[in-house]
Amino acid sequence: MPSPFYTTEQKVERFLRVQEAMDAEFSSSRNAFGLPLLPFTTTEMQLSRYLRQEFGLAYHFWVGFYNMAKGLVPEGKWMGEHYLTLGPHASDADHNGHGCSIIPFLKGACGYAARNQKTVIIPNTQAWTPDDAAAHKTRGKTVEGIIHCSTKASSEIVVPVFSQGGKGRLIAVLDIDSSIDPVDAATFDTTDQDHLETLLRKYFP
What we know:
Elements: H1 8-26, H2 40-59, E1 62-68, E2 83-91, E3 102-104, H3 108-116, E4 120-122, H4 133-137, E5 155-162, H5 163-166, E6 170-178, H6 190-203
Antiparallel strand pairs: 1-2, 1-6, 2-3, 4-5, 5-6
Helix pairs in contact: 1-2, 1-6
């Protein structure tokens, strides 16, 4: 079901404008091989900003990256697990200005996308259960569902980011929350997924 604010065609138009803005931003910041010279985190910040600017504050209520951490969680409940750390983001002040500082791979939608290395679309954050929870439980691992950083976040999409234009190792995930009521209509769909995955392959070589 399309967003109550945007048709599929309108979404495509906005994603193309994001790509145009990113191209203009980085056109003079590439080396002789066409690879970006700007820091990795600058790319994350600019993409977060342009996405939120194009899609508006409700549709893209929180946009940001969680980056792969080096090593494993050193202690506590998630000791020994891989984890993500908060990176550049664009958010509403009501979202407390940030997401979680650390997300273990076995927790939340970001952890799901990271451990399974695939995009996850969650139409209703109040009703989502990870479909791999049972498999992890048989191995003695506990999987937790949605992390509620804000009561306004109603739906979510998380897209993994890989090095080498999508062919290399996992380096981050892109997390987008929407405050549109899922009762009205689903926010994110395969149009969002396809265009976000394309943007990430292009700008994270």
